[in-house]
């Protein structure tokens, strides 16, 4: 039997790892660290730092790095993602079979939380190890939305109002979700909020949340939207990659809007 722990590690700050996450990491006989290419070397560096901070020398010897397959950028987005997930599952299978041929406990460090716009659970569902069963454990982590609202000192939703979590792609294609007072946007390739009429909207934006390069901007969308687009482009150029998330609201989240 393979016991696979998907451990949410927050957004880059080692202090965001929960005690349950630390226990699962220390119990693992194999800790898999994915590499995503030179442009995102910061991400694997942070995982390495986290492991060095939390594990002793014996446990560090159980850390194995591997290269993730690349996603095909074809027009059939869902089909390309499905094929990509299948390729990642095969890579996981190869690594686990190689390093735990008799079974045991494996762990993977997941940015944020495995439940929120992360595909690790879907990939784990595809994992097939001949002659071995796979038991998946999820260890919750701190999400980027939690860090975003904490850093801006705001709630996620207005009083007694709903909030919808969506992607930049869907916001751009479908506009403001019906009946939503607040909209949290993730996986935005850049500036999807520009597809909206900005009047009456407030935005709270954050990039590299939890990291030393964290950047925050908030204000009326009509005023700060162009500045966010410009800052985002500059940060991406400087670091070679960017992870950002933002919250939009029509209704004040607090009695007095910050900013």
UniProtKB/TrEMBL annotation:
InterPro entries: 4pyrrol_Mease, 4pyrrol_Methylase_sf, 4pyrrole_Mease_sub1, 4pyrrole_Mease_sub2, CobF. Residues 4-224 form the Tetrapyrrole methylase domain. Transmembrane segments: none annotated. It comes from the Bacteria. The keyword Transferase applies. PANTHER family: COBALT-PRECORRIN-2 C(20)-METHYLTRANSFERASE, PRECORRIN-6A SYNTHASE [DEACETYLATING]. This is Precorrin-6A synthase (Deacetylating). It comes from Halomonas elongata (strain ATCC 33173 / DSM 2581 / NBRC 15536 / NCIMB 2198 / 1H9).
């Amino acid at each position: 039997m393979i016991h696979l722990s998907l451990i949410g590690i927050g957004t880059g700050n080692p202090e965001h790892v929960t005690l349950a996450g630390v226990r699962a990491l220390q119990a693992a006989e194999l800790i898999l660290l994915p590499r995503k290419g030179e442009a995102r070397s910061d991400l694997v560096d942070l995982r390495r730092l986290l492991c060095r901070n939390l594990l002793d020398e014996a446990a560090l010897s159980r850390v194995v790095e591997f290269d993730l397959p690349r996603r095909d950028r074809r027009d059939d987005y869902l089909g390309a993602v499905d094929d990509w997930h299948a390729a990642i599952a095969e890579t996981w299978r190869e690594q686990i079979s190689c390093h735990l041929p008799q079974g045991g406990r494996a762990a993977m460090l997941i940015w944020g939380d495995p439940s929120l716009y992360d595909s690790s659970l879907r990939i784990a569902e595809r994992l097939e190890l001949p002659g071995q069963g796979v038991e998946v454990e999820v260890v919750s982590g701190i999400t980027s939305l939690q860090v975003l609202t904490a850093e801006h000192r705001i709630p996620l939703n207005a009083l007694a109002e709903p909030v919808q979590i969506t992607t930049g792609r869907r916001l751009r294609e479908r506009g403001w979700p019906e009946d939503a007072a607040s909209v949290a946007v993730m996986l935005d390739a850049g500036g999807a909020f520009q597809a909206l009429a900005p009047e009456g909207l407030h935005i709270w934006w954050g990039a590299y949340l939890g990291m030393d390069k964290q950047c925050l901007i908030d204000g009326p969308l009509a005023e700060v939207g162009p500045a966010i687009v410009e800052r985002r482009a500059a940060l991406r150029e400087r670091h070679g990659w960017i992870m950002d998330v933002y919250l939009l609201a029509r209704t004040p989240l607090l009695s007095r809007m910050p900013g």
